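Structural prep section.
Before we set up the soaks we want a predicted structure of the protein with zinc ion in place, mainly to decide which crystallisation condition to try first. Input record follows.
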Amino acid sequence: MKPILMLHEVAEWMFDLPLQDYTLTFDDGLYTQYVHFDKIKSIDTDKIFFISTGIVATEQTEQSDEFIQCHAAHSKLFENSDLSHYMNWSQLQEVAKDPRCEIGAHSHMHIRHTGFNTIHDTKLMMKHFEDNNLKPTSFCFPYNDENEVYRCLLKQYGFTKFYGKERIDIYDL
Ligand SMILES: [Zn+2]
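Run finished without errors. Recording the tokens verbatim:
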């Protein structure tokens, strides 16, 4: 099995790295992942895109292909409801159609595990995936904050593969 690489925002220089030597995981559904999707697709390896279902652009959102780091995109979203740096569901469907790309789950609102809120958040996440005919079985903990209780809850919803801090950050290569 290949080591697992963690990516968020995607930039041109990253394609100079030996990405084919890793299973690639892309977090947060950032629009720059879609901007470079043709290149990503052509890499001879498996890819998982971890999506927070509450952080998806609408079909009307005017998206920006500007390079922005994921924390900055999250700040713009949480402060100004700005979804311009995220993919929309049509784009996610296109990603899902590629035989070597998988859509994984990454909570609904990118929350840390907090008990009751987690149950509510997970129900919303499942509903959004269902509404979009997706049935993810891979889950990536937001902030790589792994939690046994959260993992048990997710197993009840059919998740079998879990991802978090064991991944190598592309910025550490
Ligand atoms: Zn994330």
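Observations: DSSP finds six helices and seven strands in the chain.
Flagged for discussion at group meeting.
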